[in-house]
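Dear support,

I submitted the protein below through the web form. The confirmation email said the job was done, but the results page showed an empty box. After a refresh the structure appeared. I'm attaching both so you can tell me whether what I see now is the final result or a partial one.
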Amino acid sequence: MTAAVLFLGFLVLFVLGTPVAVALGLAGCLAIWIADLGLLSVPTNAYTGIAKYPLLAVPMFVLVGAIFDRSGVALRLVNFATVLVGRRPGALAAVTVMVSMFLGGISGSGPANAAAVGGAMIGALSRAGYPRAFSASVIGAAAATDILIPPSIALIIYSVLVPQASVPALFAAGMIPGILAGLALMGPIFWMSKTHGFGLAEKDLPRPPFWASLREAMWGLMAPVLILGGMRAGWFTPTEAAVMAVVYGLFVGFVIYRTLTLRDLYEMFVEAAEISGVILVVVALASIFGWAGSTLGVFDRAASAIVATGGSEYVILAMLIVMLIVIGMFLDGVSTFLILLPLLMPIAAKFGWDPVWFGVLLTLKIAIGQFTPPMAVNLMVSCRIAGVPMEATLRWVGPLIAAMFAVLVLLIAVPELALWLPRVLGY
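What the results page shows now:
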């Protein structure tokens, strides 16, 4: 009965339009009250859910994303990526993907990446002859690579919920799949651009000089090296790396480029506080739901029932992926992790799946969900910047989803894509 109250309570509240975090918290409180587990456990578990050292990195990486957006790093990266790709139909859309991947090594937030790249690229794409709906689709999909390429807020949340997977190991494991996801997106981008004649005006535009563009973009390119190299050298932890990234970004914005003002600093602090507050409230309230389900044994029984269906591990994995596809259409990545990980990890343990590989696999699935309608948080941001309705992107976003799904299948077939780099680096 309590299990039914826990899940049905959440579903009813969710259908009624209650915010996901509130629905999770209320459903957990109701199950705790009915099971007589003591309502005093509610504030304790809410606090315990967010009183974790790795979560200190979340507001820092949100802040550093805003700093690099406002300081003009994105525009300088665009010029340098244009030099590398050249001028031909589809090239500027491919540059959009490359810039998103560069920024993925700085901010760790898909929607923040979509906002930064969208602000820098929508106008240029439109002038080059790309429809705004196509541009919004490309930006939404490209920004999804952000939660795979380290640093990643989603992987930090996963490490908090799954202690067996450390943050450095997850960061290293996400690197190769993240790069593959970005490269995979370029295939349909060039194909659609060539088929429909997008970007023909690019051929007449001048190509930026290589050395000048590299010099301008160098400070942005060095940010991922500082963050990841510092962690690998043992100079600082992932949480301390987030603080170092903020200091580095402020130095570049105020001293090197001199594009930031004290007014910008205040607005960035407010923006980072708002976004981080939302994330941490979701984590706190979901912790109540997770503790109730674990204490009542709901998740273990559900996992045992799924395993007992008799399917092979690949059949079970396919079922989980289909379930995540459907859920990912309606929920953001952090909420999906917080709701489903208590159920998914016992299944992973029963089949002996590596928690680091499984975490990257789930994150890649969530990345696909970030630009899969109707939820599609990245697509919401890019469509708002482009000034087009989300339904206008449906014809363009399909091939991009298929391309990233192919990387998902490849990761299942070859787990070493995620596990090789952490092993080499000693994580």
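Response: this is the final, complete result; the empty box was a page-load delay. The CA atoms of residues 172 and 422 lie 5 Å apart.
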